[in-house]
Amino acid sequence: MKRRKIKIVFFAEGDHVAYYTLKYDGEDDTEYDKFFANYDTEEFKEDIDTLMTAMEMIAENGAEDRHFRYAGSEFDNAMELPPNMYSSQLRLYCLKISKNIVILGNGGKKETRTYQEDPWLDSCVKILQEIDRLLKQRIESREVEIKGKQLIGHLSFYI
Amino acid sequence: MPLKFENKKLQERFEKITPEFKAIMRKRFETAEQISLLLKEKGITQRELAAKLNKSESEISKWLSGTHNLTTDTVALIEFHLGKNTITVCPKDIKPTYIYLFAMSPETAESAIPIKVPAKINNQASEQIKEQYVFSNQNESQIDICAASN
User: Fold this and answer.
1) What are φ and ψ of residue B125, in 5° steps?
2) Which residues of B touch A54 (CB under 8 A)?
3) Quick one: which of B150, B149, B147, B139 has its CA closest to B112?
4) Stated pTM of the model
5) Which residue pairs from B126-135 have beta carbons closer than 8 angstroms and sit at least 24 positions apart in sequence?
6) CB–CB of A52 and B3 under 8 A?
7) ipTM of the complex
8) What is the pLDDT of residues B30-63, one digit of tens each?
């Protein structure tokens, strides 16, 4: 499969947390924009309210592990936010990089027992796991630096 | 600093969330925060709390996420096992002289009118206040009266 260029972009912030998302090269919308466009509907209105309010509350004091539910493996930071949606069906996947930085990806309606059984949800988590792996390498090689709420440096990847 | 979105459309959507909904979520986050701090203070892990309450660890994780709607019974159980109150309550021997009633509707919640009334307020008085403070262009059914003690 052809690799695509994807960039980590800033999109929201509060006192103690900056939220980033992912944006494919050549596309206008970020992954969060796409998730929002698909699910800000009457069916999921309360889920979107919960998600946005949870983002605000988390930003007030900093992101803690307990605010999220682990989605990937024990070796990565792939998580779900927030863990308790009203509908219990909508899933938004993210990476908790630090207490001050969260990268939100994409997600969707989970209708299978596990997200791995749904090709779309599985791909959402896998992209984040790959970004997490590459970002850790960049941080280690000092191509990317974390300064409080800021992610500074080379934030484009081919995945 | 309130949460600020770069995207104007997202910011507008965020601002449409009602203050009532935010108040509910804030209370859930604050309760979870209190319980989490208490666990740290007592040196009790989530696993140990789960064992004490005969619950699964994932259930405790859900409770501490901040978005879960904990029942008063659950809070009471946690308080009992941790030996400390997490939600401040007015002790029995200190009774408030007055309580505040806030007349509000979803549209006007930000400008809710606090009405100071004697603590002996009952449902009948609440109904009377409702009648007095119906907003000119609102249906009575849209007005909620929330009480808070001083």
Assistant:
1) -65, -40
2) 25, 29, 66-67
3) B147
4) 0.78
5) B126/B101, B129/B101, B129/B103, B130/B103, B133/B103, B135/B105, B135/B108
6) yes
7) 0.91
8) 999 999 999 999 999 999 999 999 999 999 999 9
